[in-house]
Amino acid sequence: MTQPIIGYHQDEYGGWVADLACGHGQHVRHQPPFFSRPWVLTPEGRAQHLGETLACKKCDEREPPT
After folding, report:
1. Assigned domain for 65 exists
2. What are the start-end ranges of the E strands in 1-66?
3. For residue 43, is it within any domain?
4. What is the pLDDT of residue 40?
5. Is 18 within a domain?
6. Considering only CA atoms, which of 34, 36, 15 is closest in space to residue 26?
7. What's residue 9's pLDDT?
8. Which of 26, 40, 59, 66 has CB 3.0 to 4.6 Å from 1, enough for a Cys bridge?
């Protein structure tokens, strides 16, 4: 199920996590060549992606929000 990004926070290691409308979180990493998300590195880039949707595996598995 896809869910919109409503915010971001950093995990205990400094990695960025997208806060999804469903209450789950999903890492949004920029680790070329596996993940190319340079927008996650700047506040402006993250702001531009608010409202975008990501596939939420936790919703698909019917896990409660964290």
Report:
1. no
2. 2-10, 16-20, 25-27, 53-55
3. yes
4. 95
5. yes
6. 15
7. 97
8. 59
Q: Token pair of 8, please?
A: 């971001």
Q: Where are the alpha helices (DSSP H) in the chain?
A: 43-48, 57-60
Residue range(s) defining the domain that contains residue 19: 2-60
- How many structural domains are present in the chain? 1
Distance of CA 9 to the CA centre of its chain: 9
Q: How many residues does the chain have?
A: 66
Q: Are 3 and 24 in contact (CB under 8 A)?
A: yes
**Segment 25-64, tens digit of pLDDT:** 999 998 888 889 999 999 999 999 999 999 999 999 999 9
Chain segment 1-31, per-residue pLDDT in tens: 999 999 999 999 999 999 999 999 999 998 8
Residue 51 forms part of a structural domain: yes
Query: Residue for token digits 């990501």?
Result: 54
